[in-house]
Specification:
A hairpin with a 4-residue loop joins strand 2 and strand 3. Strands 1, 2, 3, 4, 5, 10, 11, 12 and 13 form a nine-stranded mixed sheet that branches. The chain has a four-stranded mixed sheet with strand order 6-9-8-7. The N and C termini lie close together (about 10 Å). By secondary structure, the protein is α/β, with parallel strands linked by helices. It is about 15% helix and about 35% strand. The mean pLDDT is about 90.
Amino acid sequence: MLAAPDLAAAVAEFTELTGVVPVQGGQHLGRGTANYLVGLAGGLPSADSAYLEIIGPDPEQPPPAAPRPFGIDELTASRLAAWAIHPADLDGHIEVARERGYDPGPARAMSRAAPDGERLHWRLTWADLNAGVALVPFLIDWGSTAPPPSRGLPEVELVGFEATHPHPDEVRSALAALAAELPVRAGNRAALTAVLAGRHGPVVLT
């Protein structure tokens, strides 16, 4: 999830750096956000189903009653704010994670309107997405809705993906409970870093 204070500017910058034009995902009605999507090739065990979502304020919607997710309202520059995994059995995965000592939260129903008018529905575990960068992934289940990578997204190569945290073992413990793979090294702040193959060399998103 690349959260941006200006969605159009973030998409334009991504296009300039990578040479890949993200496609419009849709609007999160009532939440004041919209998104653009691009597929991620390589770099992950599930690279065939991985994608990057660029999310930011939707100029076609009025300001929402609640803060926009991922701290978007407070951002002055784009940042990698969160990531997700999609287990085969969402409810079972939640139960196992709790047994292992980590509670990802309950699964909640979500939806958005696609540009062609189709209404997309999914469920996800909704952690506090306004509490800074989320190194531990949320979980998503697309149900009967076709996930974005199956919709013919343009692709950019993902060269690497990692995290830093002042106390990396705490993050590694939660990742292990979710059976989620992400290298975590010690650093002075919590951050996600993705390296993409760009138009003129590596592009680092953080």
